[in-house]
Amino acid sequence: MEEQKLPNSTLILVFGILSIPLCCCYGIGGIILGVTAIILANKAAKLYAENPEIYTGYQNVKAGKILAIIGIVLSVLYILLIVGMVSVFGWDTLQDQELLNEKIQEMMGQ
Predict the structure, then answer these.
(1) Cα–Cα dist 92/5, whole Å
(2) What local confidence, expressed as pLDDT, does residue 1 receive?
(3) In the prediction, which pLDDT does 84 show?
(4) Which of 5, 21, 22, 63 suits 71 as a labelling partner, its CA being 20 to 30 A distant?
(5) pLDDT digits (tens, 9 = 90+) for 1-60
(6) How far lies 5's CA from each of 29, 42, 44, 53, 63, in Å?
(7) At 75, which helix (H) or strand (E)?
(8) Separation between Cα atoms, residue 24 and residue 17, nearest integer Å
C-alpha cells in the first residue's frame, strides 16, 4: 500500500503555532485555535492508531498538539491577568493612562 499523509496534519501544526501568538488577543484567539487543533489532533491520532503503516505526518500532529496545549495555557494565563488587573485597578482606571500611573505610584508608596 502507498503511504498517504494524515488528514489535517499540516492544519493541526499551523493552528498549534498560531495559538501561541494569538493568546495576546485577549486570550480568545489562542483558545479557539488551540481547542480546534487538539480536537483535530485527537481524530488524527485515532486514525493513525488504526493503521500506522499507511499514514505519514504523525510528527506534525504531535507537535501541533503540544503547541496547542501551550497556546491554551498561555491564553488562560493572559485572561487571568486581565481579570486580575481589572479587579485590582478597575475598568475606568485601566482606560485612563494618567489615573493608572497615579494608582501604580500609590501602590509603590511614592
Answers:
(1) 52
(2) 64
(3) 94
(4) 5
(5) 688 999 999 999 999 999 999 999 988 999 999 999 999 999 999 999 999 999 999 999
(6) 27, 16, 10, 11, 15
(7) helix 58-89
(8) 13
Contact 34, 15 (CB under 8 A): yes
DSSP structure class, residue 6 = P
**Residue 1 in grid coordinates:** 500500500
Q: Which DSSP symbol is given to 52?
A: G
Q: Encode burial over 16-53: b for 16+ CB neighbours within 10 A, e otherwise.
A: bbbbbebbeeebebbbbbbbbbbebbeebbebbeeeee
Q: Are 89 and 101 in contact (CB under 8 A)?
A: no
Q: Cell 494569538, residue?
A: 22
Half-sphere exposure of 22 (CA within 13 A, CB side): 18
- The C-alpha cell of 26 is what? 485577549
Indicate the pTM of the whole model. 0.87
Cell matching residue 42: 485527537
